């Protein structure tokens, strides 16, 4: 029997044999396979990573363990184009809120009726779409984000779209980001598609959000605009500032403490 199993494993195509390294995965609305991690038991909360991130981005963050210890079920997907999820090489695969729809499909796949979501940086941009699209969302956190993403023509987004789409020479100030992606072996074509199709959520739509939202940023972070201006657009917002810059705030104890207090208050 052992010899048979050994022969069977050797006979499997590499793609099939390697699939187990990605588990768990689920097939999203358009056939894209999305990798995710689930830890802990209790009320579900989805953590949404930022640009060039993955589910691993939250591994060492203080928030992840704080939520598990506080009795939350922590769900961490790698958005399409990132981590162990599929990386479609078609711009169409990223259009029309595909990433938000992946999260909604994951929630359905797990059989959840209601959940909270915590986004950081670009993850906040995707979480903002959930505020508009998903009635199952109970409370949300937008971290590391001001109102700049509400502009469909946001210059920073357009610059990154060009940076990862063969026009890096136009944006030498961001060359380090592209170099970093290449050094880490990331799929730069997929990253370019993410920036080209990145959604915006209008101030008018944000003003219609009925659920509680925490807007939180580091005291040295205005990379994506001023957090108080974003909070002012949301009728049921809470604004918090903690020590840190855009790159280190999401992993900090201060960030974890404020997010946990907010989620507990709306549990």
Care to describe what's here?
It is a single chain. With about 270 residues, the protein is an alpha/beta fold. About 35% of the residues lie in helices and about 20% in strands. The protein has helices at about 1-10, 15-20, 60-70, 100-110, 120-135, 155-165, 175-185, 190-195, 205, 225-230, 255-265, and strands spanning about 25, 35-40, 45-50, 70-75, 115-120, 135-145, 215-220, 235-240. Strands 1-2-4-3-5-6-7-8 form an 8-stranded mixed beta sheet. α3 (about 60-70) links the parallel β3 (about 45-50) and β4. α3 (about 60-70) packs parallel to α11 (about 255-265). The chain starts with a helix and ends with a helix. The relative contact order is 0.14. Residues about 1-20 have low confidence and may be disordered.
Radius of gyration: 19 Å
Structural class: alpha/beta
Please state how the strands of the largest beta sheet are arranged side by side.
1-2-4-3-5-6-7-8
Give the low-confidence spans.
1-19
Proportion in β-strands: 15-25%
Helix share of residues?
25-40%
